[in-house]
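Quick one - inputs below.
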Amino acid sequence: MDTMSTWSQLIPEFSFQQVFVEPWTEFLDPFIWIFLMGFFVTAACGFLGTFIVWRRMALVGDAISHSVLPGLVIAFLVSQSRDTLPMFLGAVGAGILTTALIEVIHQKSRIKTDAALGIVFTTLFAIGVVLVSLYGENVDLDTDCVLYGELEHVTLEPLSSVLGLFAAPGSVLRMGIVALLVVGLVVLFYRPLVVSSFDPGLARSIGMSPAVMHHALMSLLAIVVVSSFEAVGAVLVIAMLIFPGTTASLLSDRLPVILGITLVIALLGALLGMHFALWLDISTAGAISTVIFGLFLLAWVFAPRRGLIWRALR
Amino acid sequence: MKLGFGYGVSHQLTRVKSPRYLLVLLSILFFSATAEAARISDLEETNVWEQMFRFFSMRDDVVRTALLGSVFLGVSCGLLGSFIVVRKLSLFGDTLSHAVLPGVAIGYLVAGQKDPFAIFFGATLAGILGTVMVNLIKKTTHIKEDSSLGMVLAGFYGVGIVLMNRIQKLPTGTQSGLDKFLFGQAAALSATEVWMIAGVAAASIVLVLLFYRQFLVGSFDIGFARSLGLPAGLFHYLLMMLLAFTVVVSLQAVGAVLVSAMLVIPAASAYLLTDRMHRMLIIASGFGIFSGVLGAFFSFLGNSLPTGPLMVLASSAVFTLSFFFSPKHGLVSRWRKRRSGQIRIENENTLKAIYQVRESYGFAGEGVKVKDLAIRMNETSDETLRRLQKLRAVGVCDLKEIEGKPFAFLNPEGWLRACAVVRNHRLWELYLTNQAEYEPDHVHDDAEIIEHVLGEETVRRLERLLDYPVEDPHGKLIPSLADLQRSLTQGGLDEKTTGYRMPNR
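Output:
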């Protein structure tokens, strides 16, 4: 095989009409759902992720996202259906089990937290993969979905109408609700969340319970990760959780501004990701995570005051 | 070359003080690596037992390569995993294993096919780039290490997924077998790949033996390593380099997603079993080999099952066992230790109560009326009897009926221990009032706890500090153990005299 032809085949022909115009005109119907789904996932993850990153829980998100898999498979095998409720219960159960097991191993033995994390989520993930390999054809969950999600599948879902106002695929609706829930809860509990994230001592002294806040945040994280699982898979959800918040924190010091920037990054990621995926014929989730990775690299190099260039010139 | 290698190993072994195990391990490895091949063409069996026989007799080339691959993999993962676990870098392996993915894809693209060397090269390059980026992010921004690990993990992985998606769309890409890199298939290992795994394992063993002390000091006390003039940074990067190699060659067998488990889990299991680093290295390698072989075996039994998850499950089983049943750090032995501690405390409280009852009678008579004891301990006579039976079970107490009423008698050993507990209690009370300036009515609860844990050494120091006191803050006598012991040895331990001479009286 000729190496040169491999390289030329790697990047398909670019047609502006097809990549940038048609999704917004002729084929608006399927593409708007892909875009919205990508935006909702990235926005929900990124918004919550800002706090997760600050509380040094970034890799807990990684652990939960991996261990969701056995929860989903077992929920399916028990309930024999792909209904939302059993799936959701199974996944949240798995998420809670993960954090509980990490705590138990850490407290009851001399294993440190990082190793406990590494042990628990890989084990649960391995159980999940074996179950998928054994019962894969029944579960309708293939390993590709686990590895990079199937965001494009929203276009295959039937539309369900909301109060007769408009119609949207069910999973897009659910993800939209989750994103609204995350933003709403963060705005509602903004003050306690900020205080307990940045100064647990102060939080305790003014009568807040950091443990309650911690568990509430973990539950919210589990909900977000579980709802994003089918769209972006077990690994890429980490990108959605970490990149928006860290990128924004390179650009601003003020938390409200940072939270606003995460939404802009989610918007850019979903938009560019959708177009790239269409052009290159690749997984949308992979494209979105690559775009927000790129945005982080740009911010890292060019950010005012914090960027590499600024630091080098100073 | 082989001679020189052997010489270097045995020379170093005298320093790490575990020569025989390692030598045996090494010879097994090299023996199995050069074992003669025997060809068999019968591939029709479906029976589980025959499959097992086929697997363990190693008649098939596929089985032999898979098995050898898993064995070497177990060794290098166990060795390097031990270091990353004690260095608290467990999640670094996870990051590295995901970050090599774009390198794998680019290696494939450059070579135009599944060439193990090109893939190895590309993956190593990506791994190094990922490591550098984690460190750079940490140095140049305020972003914390766990986030930077997560960013490199997910960012590189995303790029890798995009590249692999593209490769699968190529006319030649559909049969590329790149998806094996995600979950691993030991049966798909080629002979070249097994030799690469063996090479990395050999390099890890040799380097760990050569630089055992440097790695050890660097892992536990960076400051000390620097003060010794060791280039700790250099050895850190050497370790990271070996780690990257291990992750890269393991990809085909275990898969990118789960390599980190093979690094962390066997090492963590070994960490629960021993406190010595060289033992941990050996045990972790052993567990690594065990899980690798078991994973390869089950993957062989069920044809469609990927190897990686099965290896991980095997090692998780090992971890679970050592988590519960490790002789020193296991949950069960800890629980038993705590249980026996609670029993001891309960018995000591009974002994103390007996002392106090006898004290209230001015140490007249030998026995203690169970009823008096029950009133003292604020419980029913039955409960007190049960307590005393526990004391009798450990052989420090006797129960007798005198004139129809139950009496408890302590033997000399029991009396000695009762005195010791009371002494601890009263000494501590005195210490708190005199030295720490507590109010006398605030010291009792604290002394209730400390009386069970004060060691002989501490008691001596307390006595010295308080100038060999006679009375506690409440005006009660403090039994001095030295006098008591003397009186006992003079009288003979078995001899029951009428009470014991109370010191300081």
